[in-house]
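#structure-requests
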Amino acid sequence: MESSASPADTPLGQVRILLQTRTHLPVGQGRGEKLEFMKDIVCQHLWKRDFDKGQERWYPYNDLFGLEDRLCFFLIDHFGHNHAQEREGPVPVLRFEWDGEALNQIHEDLPSKLKTELEKWPFTWEGRKWHRVPKEPDGTYSPVNFRLIMRSQLRLGVPLLQDHIEFVGKYPEHALWLREHLEEHLWAVLEPYSNLPPRVRHERAI
């Protein structure tokens, strides 16, 4: 791994790190390995160690590894070992980009759109708001909600699960929705387990 970032840029104290890349560039065979790579690469540069959940928290955004060439971000908040100690004043933000070969620091001000997004993710843990998909009284997801979860998981690069296979076989109407709302290469993974007839392709008349 190469790095164009200078050691003089290494921050002291609490800091936010915003790392960006394209979904096809992280190193790794599956989603888990790619996430670990992205978490570790900046920590190795700044602190000569891998990501440490005792000192950092991280949050991926648009990490759609099931889709090719999508811009994605990884926010890493470095607290250090003393999480109770708050920094006086705003927490500095360092920006990096992984281009598939090297880690490059971005020496530019944050665009207004990124500033707005970061405001939704405050540095203090207590300020975070999490969205949870509601469950039914029996603790399961409704078919409508589960198909949304499936679509999200497949786009994130989550491997095909037994629950996915059983769902498309049990609910043909929801399998049809997935066929119409998933990218073609993702639906191709599910199609063998559905009971849907093959899609009719209309050829253009000559």
